[in-house]
Write a structure and sequence with these properties.
4 copies of one chain form a homotetramer. With about 300 residues, the first copy, chain A, is α+β, with helices and mostly antiparallel strands. The first copy, chain A, has 13 helices and 7 strands. Chains A, B, C, D: InterPro entries: Beta-lactam/transpept-like, Glutaminase.
């Protein structure tokens, strides 16, 4: 049942979703592999919508900063793609990866080329390449997020980054493994430092919805300049839909039907091409690493508005 | 560049695409694992569009019957889903499968539950379940295709089915393997007979575009009755987008940006939700089993019309 | 501590081992995948020694027939090797297989060539080849066992064979999978019938110790004729040591230090080259499918006699 | 055909083998992943025998130092086992690993516990543990080799070690991966430094045959003291036989029939328990990393002397 597609804003829809979520039991559990994330409260919930004209509004904790984590992989991908274009795809694929279990064997089977830019191995490759091009991948990302969100106070959380580094053996293994195939070009410790800084950025639903809006605008940034081509924007959306939510991409497409990218901090961004972007946050995760309340809220959004791409 | 989205028909677009394809070198090679397919001529090309109102038109060999093969998996899925609903998803997943290489180990790792209904293992499970419910899965499929296409002459190609059976050891292995986990309920030889009959149906682009139109109509059949719910139609589209083109689903989403399902006979169906369906055919395949000219034609279609879901 | 290596017989050693085993708690559990095996009593224990001169003696239930199961794979291997020689090794490897988990992916990775003749896939290949050469692999095996043991009453247990067939989907999957690579030449149902008949043979420790003695005699049969060359006997022993006890071959070599082959009926045969053969039986299995009391008894035997090959 | 088992020395056998090898075409290719090894000349060949009484003799280049590489894994294993006993086996298995392809997925499947101490992952665990216990694993190894061989001039080749470090990404990946499971306890860079130093030791066939003799003496060192128990010596021999020659352990057992350990420098040590040890060297490798002439020479040795354990 579609209740609204033509109103000026989605505010009533957000209010209704927040109310439903409020009364939904079962919120999952926060990520627990580093202490900073384990303290997340699954009762927290925020949701923001950014229209393509830059209007932003939300409900709940939509202005509360949280740890963006893998949500930043979307921006790093776009920033690198804008610089090197299709050359990137010789070094990272754009196919879904199947389940996490296969990650290493697939990497071995495919000669150190990760399946897509959103699994950790692929994001490490993208960061490595952006680092080579810019000299500071994490700084380039932060500048972009600050500019697009209009929030100059956005910053890294160096405590979180340090904690990730201390638990970073698996990412170090991935990076060294790809380096053995010649697919990593910077020293692994430097790369990991950049990678963990990127993941540590703290931002709110409002910030991230605004920062993602260039994808709803087919590549046009907040200041009207173009980050990359319309075709590239479409491509990033396609990769988000097929690979953006870990091993639940099929389920997310099935339930939500929008390009989306999640992070273990509990955030998810989603794109309604040509119309708006969404960011939802709630720290409780399901067993595949996606925010339980976040996915539920997006599911309700597309059901109520009919704005699924399908 | 979008040249047309509001005209009454897409005929000029199809003409233009056919002309471009005509002049494109490199058409891939026909499937060669059975003689009947190996004889396919890569120079053949047809494309049809069916509007949601039932209008159909096309270019090239769009009325030439060809071997539908895995394209039929869409219909079998829809027909079973219409009967048993979400219960199906306890027996087959809806996540992309990663590369073909992993198919067996994933099946083993996940206790005989295939990743999605479009890999062979998953299609065998769907056929097995439809067979249990109807007593004749292949017949149920054929009836549906005849009715939706309005072409009562559609039929199995029993010579092709026999040839598939003679080369069917790998599918027999998959079926027995899943049976060892209790996920196949009919005798394997009977199941394979039904499965290969389904794949053998011969139909044209016109037939298949019309037969797929219920997905563009959100579940409504040609006679106005409803096959299944709007939500189920959306779900089938989502599974097509993430899993419909073998190990090239990401690439297909990236280039074409529509839900689609391909077959090794060289056919591909695609859905523009709420608007129309497409079917393209050309027997030459790329190394991942998708029609080279078919994917190129769909790529051009969404580029020229802007009708990608992204 | 070596207590005896030069006495005329090992009878005192067997008596001591039987007494120790009697007082050892924890006997594992019988195989439960078919009813006929699930009824096995873990308290049963028998052990026999056959000297190279044909003398045989034992303790406990050493004359009690039991289901030989995979122990027969040694004889099938020897019988086929005697017929086709090294040609066999183009169709089955002789390397350990790593853990069971990898069986299917290894088979896929290595183009349908199983790692060794003692995993099920490899034994199916050997049976298929012996079947092609003799027209009746199971009958050839039974004749050999009867002749070498001097026990003309040995026979198949057709009830067990039927039960195996009814639970045979995994072996059917392996056979069809290898057939898809051209590595199985008989119809799969016929092959499985032969395979399960072989496994169903009932024999006692006395029978099996005698039937294995040709390996301790470097290839010479009970009647003084030669089954195959000294070098081939050494090769079979080597394959037994590295691959004979499922995924516990390393552990068996480490603890027992003799070529051995186990079955899920609880039997194990072992070879002391140039000296004697052993067969032990107790139905309780460990989690890798080897008889708990059987391995313990062989471990004690080599410790007490110093007759490990290491 | 056995020509000699009771003579005082094996010198005539060695002479004959050297002559045969001299006239055998096809010597394989030296390892080429680091320049220092790539320079090896496949025409070089040496072979030494050390009797349990300490007598040593040889043919060809048996006094020429070469890069020991993985041959040192035997000594590191023995040195750690002597210190911590069976506790080691909670951290590394003793089962063959199947083919190299599976190494990473097996490590993942088995929670960071490598299959055996002779694959790289397992040797890293053993070195890590010896390092924790001694503070200097490489130094402990070097002392042992010098003492047992009586050659105080043995030393690391720091140029080779540096070259290995520069190409060490894959080992770094393994170490970090196991560290993520808590199975590595020292900093990865320190561990790799120790590991590559161990592998870099240069020694001759004479040195290594003497240094290995404690295994033929069931644990007794050159000075008559005991390194570890008779049972532990038997266990190391068993692990060598089942896991000592990469993915050719089955083939090595089949052809040679002795516990052995090879290295990519072209050296192989082998043990005839209770009798003697052998070391052979020739830099040309087969496609599984074992010296072509080395395996051939050992094969001839056991054929000529009948001293296979089988």
């Amino acid at each position: 049942m579609v209740i609204m597609t033509s109103s000026l804003t989605f505010e009533p829809v957000l209010e209704r979703i927040a109310e439903e979520i409020e009364h939904t039991p079962g919120r999952g559990r926060p990520a627990d592999y580093i202490p900073a994330l384990a303290a997340g409260d699954p009762r927290r919930f925020g949701m923001a919508v950014a229209e393509v004209d830059g209007t932003v509004y939300g409900v709940g904790d939509w202005r509360e900063p949280f740890s963006t984590q893998s949500v930043t992989k979307v921006f790093t991908l776009a920033l690198d793609l804008a610089r090197e274009g299709d050359e990137l795809w010789a070094h990272v694929g754009r196919e879904p990866s199947g389940n996490a279990f296969n990650s290493l064997v697939q990497l071995e089977y495919e000669d150190g080329i990760p399946r897509n830019p959103f699994i950790n191995a692929g994001a490490l490759v993208v960061t490595d390449r952006l680092l080579t091009r810019t000299g500071d991948a994490a700084g380039t990302l932060l500048d972009f997020l600050r500019t697009e969100s209009g929030n100059g106070a956005l910053d890294f959380d160096l405590e979180v980054a340090a904690s990730e580094t201390a638990h970073g053996d698996r990412n170090a293994a991935l990076a060294h493994f790809m380096a053995s195939y010649g697919n990593i070009h910077n020293p692994v410790p430097l790369l990991l430092d950049q990678y963990f800084k990127q993941c540590s950025v703290r931002a709110s639903c409002a910030d991230l919805a605004l920062a993602t809006a260039f994808l709803a605008r087919h590549g046009v940034r907040a200041d009207g300049s173009r980050l990359f081509t319309r075709s590239q924007a479409k491509q990033v959306n396609a990769v988000m839909l097929t690979c953006g939510t870990y091993d639940a991409a099929g389920d997310f497409a099935y339930r939500v039907g929008l390009p989306g990218k999640s992070g273990v901090g509990g955030g998810i961004v989603a794109v309604v091409p040509g119309r708006c972007t969404l960011c939802v946050w709630s720290p409780g995760l399901d067993d595949r690493g996606n925010s339980v309340a976040g996915v539920a809220a997006l599911d309700r959004f597309t059901t109520l508005t009919g704005l699924s791409v399908f």
